[in-house]
Amino acid sequence: MIEEYLEPLVADRFRNEEKYRVGHIRVVNPLPGRRVAGVHMPEMKRLAWMLAGREDALRTIAGFKAAAEDETCGRKPLRSALCHEELLVWGMMVNALKSADRVALTKDFVPFIDNWAVCDAFAAGARWFRQAEGAWELICRWFSSENEFEVRFATVISMSHFMDREYLPRILYRFDILDFSKIRSEYVSPGQARMEGGPEAVRAAGKGIAAGEAPYYVRMGVAWCLATALAKFPDDTRAYLRHTCLPEDVIRLYVRKARESFRTRGISPF
User: Which of 6, 123, 215, 264 could, after both became Cys, cross-link 183 (CB 3.0–4.6 A)?
Assistant: First the structure.
């Protein structure tokens, strides 16, 4: 789609240092077939704003969507049509297009998010979303999704732009009614990967491997959001945790995030 723009922006270390390249890809942890080009975030932001300012911006976004739709026909073991950076630029363009119907463009984009990095970058940049008509209702719809990254997106955008006294009870309620067993994930835990024949067999089936039980990126997103709530509303968060229905592993992840954050190291998580 936009390879001619991305290619000159690839970081020299990504091109020339295998250890750096492998580490960069490991952090992103893309699904098999999703190529990582090696462009850093500041360069992608500048590119997205440049593309969003052109007359054909909506046509470019439509091209991203068409390519992503083509992938769904048989993507798993195949090379994806869009690289990781193209997904990021797509999301950044949506956030940059102030004159467009960004809610409709967001609804088109979110179902194609397939890793934490794209999810979190888009959610963090969507500062406009809180003021959009029907924003919270749309977030609730994503919270009710069976798609791992739609639920993660609902979690991260809630944390990023709705974490205040008005919305905190609503966010915590959505956490309590999450049914983790019904959320589909294309990532498996290391233990599940061993049961399925090892990492190579898992990747050959088009699945990724995450650090914990699926849907790991929802579990970690909820933990992260709770740690942020602890920093802003410690008494409310601790009161919630006394009666929450969340799984034990999510609570453990929350405690870990709270202890890692400089904002909450001195605050008891319970």
Answer: 215
Q: What percent of the chain has pLDDT over 70?
A: 97
Reported pTM: 0.95
Distance CA 130, CA 222 (A): 19
Question: How many CB atoms sit inside 10 A of residue 11's CB?
Answer: 16
Among the listed residues 107, 104, 66, the one whose alpha carbon sits nearest the alpha carbon of residue 86: 66
Spatial distance between the Cα atoms of 59 and 167, rounded to a whole number of angstroms: 36
Q: Who's near 169: CB < 8 A, 6+ residues apart? A: none
Which residues, 6 or more positions from 132, have their beta carbon under 8 angstroms from its beta carbon? Answer: 102, 103, 138
Return mean pLDDT, the chain: 95
